[in-house]
Fold this protein.
Amino acid sequence: MKKILVPTDFSEHAGYALKVAAQIARKNNCELFILNLLDLPTHMNDAVSSGVNIPEVMLFLKKTNDKLEELAAESYLEGLQVTTSAKIEKAFEGIVTYSKELDIDLIVMGSHGSFGFQEMVIGSNTEKIVRASDVPVLVIKNEVKDFKATNFVFASDFSDEIKKPFQQLVDFATIFDADLNLVMINTPNSFKSTIVAESIMNDFIKDFKINKFALHIYNDTNVENGILNFANKVDADLIGMCTHGRTGFAHFFNGSISEDLVNHAVRPVITFKI
């Protein structure tokens, strides 16, 4: 892991994410990229795209770059390699594009979550990035003064489609010398006996070299509650999940457990795209 991207809107939660990213970067000698996206009104965007210099836009950019310079000068970033950038683009699209352009290894984002009608219809930018990003996304909800992933919970059905992103998770866990708590959630609608669940999990992990891990089967009313309750039970530092990255109507009707966790979990959550 060499490059970490931290999108910022200069909010309190974005600050939480940057502080965690700084901790990770310092421990792993990573370069930090701080990005702010100016999502302008349509008529301004059209004008800028046509090469027209609008005074208001130039003023926005200058003020944004000034704030980014102030942010990069924070004491907790001292000694780190930090690159700041302000771009005129929609937040969701800009973050994904910028990540691909720079070959980013990890995106760290802050989120206050969304609930109810807002969650169903609008969703947060963080949720959209989780859905679309090809690289792992670490979501931070609260200030974490000493970020660690020593006690790392990863919940899955341990099917074959998880194997590619699971290797990313193993690599991440190795960086933090984590104890991996691999858990399969049993629900009334998708119940497996202990012997069947253990067989699936053991067959899955035999293809991977994992330093420290334990297998768990946890029963609950639904998968999301099971993950949250199990994480509380073992006092997890971090929750890991894979996401299918559904979009459009497929996402609306099927939803995503990973995105629900991003919205509802208090603990840090990291997602890996299938």
Notes: Confidence is low (pLDDT under 50) at residues 114-123, 247-255. Residues 55-72 form the longest helix (18 residues).
